[in-house]
Amino acid sequence: MSEAATPQPASTAALSIKRSARGPRFVGGLPGPVFAKDVWILGKRPSTGWIRLIYSLLLLAIVALTFFVAMDGDRYTPYGSQGIAARLQSSQGVAPTVTIAIIWSQFVMLTIIGAALGAPAISDELRAGSLATLLTTPLKATQIILGKLLSRMVELAILTLIPLPLMLALRSFGGVPAPNVLMMVGLCLTVGMLAVQIGIFFSIRFKRAAAPLVMTVLVLALMVMALPGILAALGQWPALQPFQGQLQTAGAILSPPWMLMMNTATLMNEGGFPGMGNLTALSLASIGATLAWWFIFFVLSCFMLRRVMRTEDRVKTSAVALQAPTTSSSSATPAPQATATTEPPAPRRKRRAWGVQAGSSRAVSDAPVLWREMQQPILGRKWMAWTLGVIITLALLFVYYMSGLDGIQIGVAIVGVIVWLLFAAVTTTASISQEREGRTLDVLLTMPIAGRDIVWGKFMGGLRKLWIGPAVILLHLVISGCFSNVTRFFLEPIDTLTEINRWRGVWTPDYVHPVVLILMPIILLGPIAFLAASGVWLSTITKRSTTASICNLAIALVIWLVIPIFLAIFTSGFMRGGSEELVTLWLMPNPVMLTASAIDGSDESFRMLGEGFKFEGPEHFDVGFLGFLFAVCAFCGMYLFAAMFFLRSAARRIAAGTGRSA
Amino acid sequence: MIQTRELTKHYGSLAALNRLTIDIGAGEVFGFIGPNGAGKTTTMKILSCLIKPDRGTASVAGFDIAKDADQVRRNIGYMPDFLGVYDDLTVDEYLQFFAAAFGITRKNRTAIIGQVLELTDLIFKRHELVDSLSRGMQQRLGVARVLVHDPKVLFLDEPASGLDPRARIEMRSLLQELGKMGKTLLVSSHILSELAEMCTSIGIIERGTLLYSGSIQDAYERTRQRSESGERIGVTLETSGTSASLIAARLASDERIAKAVGDDTARTVVIDIKHIAAGEGGMSHHFIIESIIAAGGRIASFQPEQVRLEDAFLKLTTGAVQ
Question: In 3-state terms, what secondary structure has residue A300?
Fold first, then answer.
């Protein structure tokens, strides 16, 4: 038998040549095959095209609105009809406004898109089982992570370049200094890069992409908002007051949004931030700090992936060890481990989630989908719950200690509501997509279960996991309300009014009234149920849970943020006079505004609960407590109605595809 | 039990199924054979009411898949090619979940689950997490799941894929057991030798077109008919006696024999009998033995080569779909 190497068949050789010709080329072996593969795959995905299209359209809409409002506003200004020189001067102001609008939109969108691109990077490979294959290649962890990162950076770079021609054209108007714009674009891009890297870091730990996405958003929010806030607050501490300026500067450097705000103020000629130093140097330092964060997460990701690789290696080694007696032994006696060689090594024992007891099984109810959703651990593992609990407690204690309990009720509650709504928007989309990604959906759909039973079970499961947020907000209101009132009652000098109040048995002025504890659950129930339902609906439409999460996040942002901003710009630009009610009307059911109104209103109307409940917005409507309660219930009903609509639609979608009853 | 008429399904421009018509009787174990992308999974998904056909009709257990989808679901058990499991449940909870979905009362569940776990040899894993089971065990759990509601028809898509030889043998005997229980099975597999052992009938599909549907014996017969020779026989001669090449030359002159090749070193003769002669049944072998003895040869072994399912598959699919 000839031992000569068999030549590669012509057809295979042709195929490999064809493939390499089609795929992206890279220079000098860098950044590697993972980069080439991911760029190729990302480029082919329809979702990439959709992202680019929606991104461009949104930018176009923002630019168009900002531009026309800025130009049209001149008609109403006193100098609008005062001659060419004045008009030219006002036109110069348009360029910075539009540039700032573009850059801020870029910042928000690149951060979200970066997180969405990074979150499924490794978890997709884990789920598809291709990570194990990837780990059998001689590729190093660094190469894999770098390949994943750079392929996603290509996408971010394309998105960053989209508005470049427009920004260059805007320079012709004047008033847009290049260094500022470059710094701001640099900040946007580096934050996007950091979002990708954090997403990749978390995706190594999770099989499903929704979890890394949530973690990325939370960690980013903590890093760019909470950390500078902590530094600024530390500056207030008597012991650290001599370093207050330095701490504030450090906080600003660590917070790209803060740095963007400083650049915005400079571009709009609103004056800088005295005592903070040279803005260009600060912006560069901020870019450097973001890159330093990126590097830390890059190293951590490599370290984590290396651990996964070592585990894979161990599994392989144990498999080889099991096979060794039959493959390499020269002994004539047949190996007694014949059966052992055929059995792959037993999978590592999975850590049990909460509620699952070893050696026993729970009784499943007659509504199995609902039952399973109700049994799912809210926070996965015990350590996660403990970590989150400790972080929340420490954060609250820190805020209470630094700011005191007086006057922080609204601030903390609003931050809590915003964070929790974002969390709800992202997490509730995993329901059906997870079944699809886990390949259990086909089996579930062969069951004679009505579409509404599946959808209802998933919806209730999603809702159940979201009770912690409102609970923490209520806990904060109870603590800040009760303790501060106690302090006021017993430690502060009693004035006549307080004496009367104590005699009446009512609450003290400027503090949270107990009715807020009734109002807040109603305020939060509607929007959270709405997002949970829209999440379930989206998960029946999209294939990937990350796409559903992004879409649900977009729904929340559009309803509660984008539309009010557009309305505000639109009404201030085009509808001068008597049109601000429109913005107020739109803001009425906004949960953040309702939270502010509830706490503020209870603050002012403690005596009779009759006045002071105003709806926030350009125009204030004072409706009193009963009116406010009625409105809150009506808005909750409105959200629940919309939620039912989404659920019904989701049930119909499931039913339509499989010929079952909705 | 299973009937399809002109089932057609397109994914874009790709015809996944092209006018598929099959009839599978009650109690049959039907092997669905075809290369990847032939349309096996699409057929199973349509019959399980997971996707709708573009054209054509089908009925399972007497219920139309379009009109009585719920009734179809109650009468079938579908096991996909890749079994996803709920990793947060134990084996018992997993089966309870599906039993509850089929409306089995809590009172009856324990006994039924015990029975299916006994049948699938998983009773000792009853309270273990599903995720901790090996691949072979998870596949058996998949079979246990489809049996929970005692369906008449089982659709098993590649039930032995990814299993080691031991688990494959266990799976095969389990499916044979199900066949004996009177279930109608539609099983797809790439491992044709396994299908040959447990199926009563087969369907061969390629690029969405059904090339053959019928009993295995009929498939073998057709294979023989399509081949130039009806049957191949291998003869080993003893060292003493006439040489193999001489005997082969003698046999080749017989008009009933298509070809005879002798190997003097190995002392073997391979004889291809013409189809007409093979059709004469057992008598066809006698004249060969007589001819060899008459030529002075001494027979050490006489082995008619069996037609294998692989041969049938190759013969029946060659050039069938352009």
Answer: helix
Distance from CA of A22 to the nearest CA of B (A): 23
- Predicted local distance difference test score (pLDDT) of residue A505: 43
From the list A349, A377, A446, which residue is nearest B50 (CB)?
A446
Q: Which two tokens stand for residue A313?
A: 């290696």
Beta bridge partners of A550: none
User: Residue A364: which of B50, B97, B145 has the nearest Cβ?
Assistant: B97
* Sheet architecture: strand order including B14-24: B14-24, B2-11, B55-60, B63-64
Lowest mean pLDDT among A129-138, A176-185, A198-207, A592-601: A129-138
Given a contact cutoff of 8 angstroms between Cβ atoms, the answer to whether A263 and A279 are in contact is yes
Residue A162 CA: distances (Å) to CA of A54, A155, A165, A188, B70: 12, 11, 7, 14, 51
Q: What is the DSSP string of A351-364?
A: PPPTT--TT--PPP
Report how far residue B321's alpha carbon sits from residue B306's, in angstroms, rounded to the nearest whole number: 26
Q: How close, in Å, is residue A434 to chain B by CA atoms?
A: 11
**Confidence class for position A342, pLDDT limits 50, 70, 90:** very low
- In chain B, % helix, strand, coil (3-state, to 5) comes to 40, 30, 30
B269, B250, B272: which is closest to B261 by C-alpha? B269
Angle of helix A120-128 relative to helix A84-118, nearest 10 degrees, comes to 30
Using CB atoms within 10 A of its CB, is residue A617 exposed (0-12), middle (13-18) or buried (19+)? Answer: buried
Cα separation of A270 and A281, whole Å? Answer: 19
| Chain B residues within 8 A of A441 when measuring between CB atoms | 84
Terminal Cα-to-Cα distance of chain B (whole angstroms): 32
Strand, coil or helix: A642: helix
Task: Respond yes or no on whether the N-terminal peptide bond of residue A31 is cis (omega within 30° of 0).
Answer: yes
Phi-psi region of B107 (alpha: psi -120 to 50; beta: other; left: phi over 0): alpha
- Give the whole-angstrom CA distance, residue A148 versus residue A157: 14
- Taking the CA atoms of A8, A14, A17 and A20 in sequence, report the sign of the dihedral they define: negative
Interchain pair B96, A443: CB under 8 A:
no
Judged by DSSP in three states, B313 sits in helix
The residue ranges of every structural domain in chain A are 28-228+239-320, 368-658
Split at pLDDT 50, 70, 90, the class of A21 is very low
Q: CA-CA distance, A446 to B79, in Å (whole number)?
A: 10
Q: Give the three-state DSSP class for A489.
A: helix
Across the interface, which of B52, B102, B131 has its CB nearest the CB of A659? B52
Where residue A292 falls among pLDDT bands split at 50, 70, 90? Answer: very high
Looking at residue A7, what is its pLDDT? 43
Q: Could you tell me the CA-to-CA distances from B281 to B231, B253, B276, B285, B307 in Å, in that order?
A: 11, 21, 10, 8, 15
Interface probe with A: pick from B60, B86, B104, most Cβ of A within 10 Å: B86
Domains of chain B, first to last: 2-222 (3.40.50.300), 229-306 (3.30.70)
Has the ipTM of the complex gone over 0.85? no
Pick A159 or A3 by higher pLDDT.
Answer: A159
Q: Which of A220-234, A441-455, A595-609 has the lowest mean pLDDT?
A: A595-609
A301/A297 Cα distance (integer angstroms):
6
* Gyration radius (Cα) of chain A, Å: 29
- Per the CB < 8 A criterion, the answer to whether A411 and A229 are in contact is no
Bridge partner residues of A477 (DSSP): none
Residue B190, SS3 per DSSP: coil
Convert the pLDDT of each residue in B210-256 to its tens digit.
888 888 777 777 776 666 556 778 888 887 777 888 888 888 888 88
Instruction: Quickly list DSSP for A373-414.
Output: HHHS-SSSSHHHHHHHHHHHHHHHHHHHHHH-STT-HHHHHH
